[in-house]
Structure formats: structure tokens, C-alpha cells
Amino acid sequence: MKSRFLAIATALIALAVLVAMAFYSNLAIYISIIAIGFALALQKYVASYFGYFIIVFSNMLRVGDRIRIDSYKGDVRHIGIFYLTLDEVGEDEKLGGELTGKILHVPNLIVLDKPVLNFSKGYEKNCKMMQCDYIFDEIRIPVSSDSDITRAVSLLEEVINNEDEIYQKESQEVFKENYPTFLREAESNRRVLIHVDENRIWLKGKFVTPYRLRNELRTRMYLRFIEHIGKETNIKLA
Description:
Alpha-Beta Plaits; 45% helix; alpha+beta
């Protein structure tokens, strides 16, 4: 209601300026100066107003999508004339991937000059855009440098293949022969890579998951891996 009233008021003021310029030349000068100042004061609202139409007609996001714009991340609750309303989603260090219970009101103008990351990704299929909530995610596990790394990699690959199999098949059914590069990579490339630093060796496992289930799936993988290495004497977490 407030945003609609502001839009109507802006239109009426613009109309009043045009009328004044037509009938009262001296008054029109002062009104024009006031109008310019008023326009400068409302330039962000004007940009947000046009941002609304860009969002709607470009179909870059929809209600229900999980997005990140600049430092804001959340699920789109409402697309208003001037603001996006988001249910905030935490990052990895703060309720990673989970709703925080807070509401964000983000001005639409931010979509004009900031990248928009939509986790409900749009892919082209048969010359039409389609929505898909599958992403490529990663699980990282530190093990001590004196561990049996080959065995640790084998165990993690087993866990990932078992836990991720259903989601990989589901995503293949969604895309058929048109599925994106990350699914082909999941099929053909190694699922687990290693990274070595001074104090530990990191196992980095890649898996396909619906983005809303990524934390739940990652937790199951951690628990399964910890259960497996509990039976091993030559693998230790760092």
C-alpha cells in the first residue's frame, strides 16, 4: 500500500509540474527546481521501480527461489514494486543453508548493478527455460598426514556413491539428454580429490544434491564416513 501510494504521488507531482509550465511561466521555474530536487531525492525509488519490471519480465527469479544478491541470501517471499522480501538464509559459518527466521527487505535497484545468483537454476531445454534445484556441492574432511589416504579416498567415494545415487538419477530424469555440464562431470570424473597442507590432508568429495537438502545430505555423509573409519586403525581425522 505504501509503495503504491508513493508511485501515485510521484505521478501527480509530475503532472502538476507540466501544468504549471504550461500556464504559469514564472512559477514553473521554481516548481522545476523543486521537482529536480525531488527527483534526485527519489532516484533510488525510481531505480527500484524500474528494477521491478526487469525482475518480472526477465524471469531472473520467482517467489520461492533461493537467491544471493551481493551479501544478501534468502528465499524470495514477495516481489514488490520497490523491494524484494526474502526469508534470510544463513551462510556456512551461520546456520549454513538454513533459514534464520529473519526477514530481509532488499531494494529492487540492486539487481541493476549486482550479480544475481539463483540456486533454483534456469537451464535451457528444447529451446525453453526450465527450473531445476539441483546443484553440485562439496564435502570436506581433514585426515592426518600419516593416514592411509588411498583407503580414506575409497571409503569416502563409497559413501558419496551410496548416498548420492538417488539424487543423481533424479536429476538425470529431469534433464534427460539436455542436462548440464556438472552432471556429466559427476558421471565421468573422480568424485573425491585431495588437497595437502602443512598439518593435514583434505578429502574433497563432490556430489549432486537438491539445494534445500544439501546440509541434510552432507550430514549423512559425515556420519557414514565417521562410522566407517571407526572400524579402521590406519585412518585418523585431523
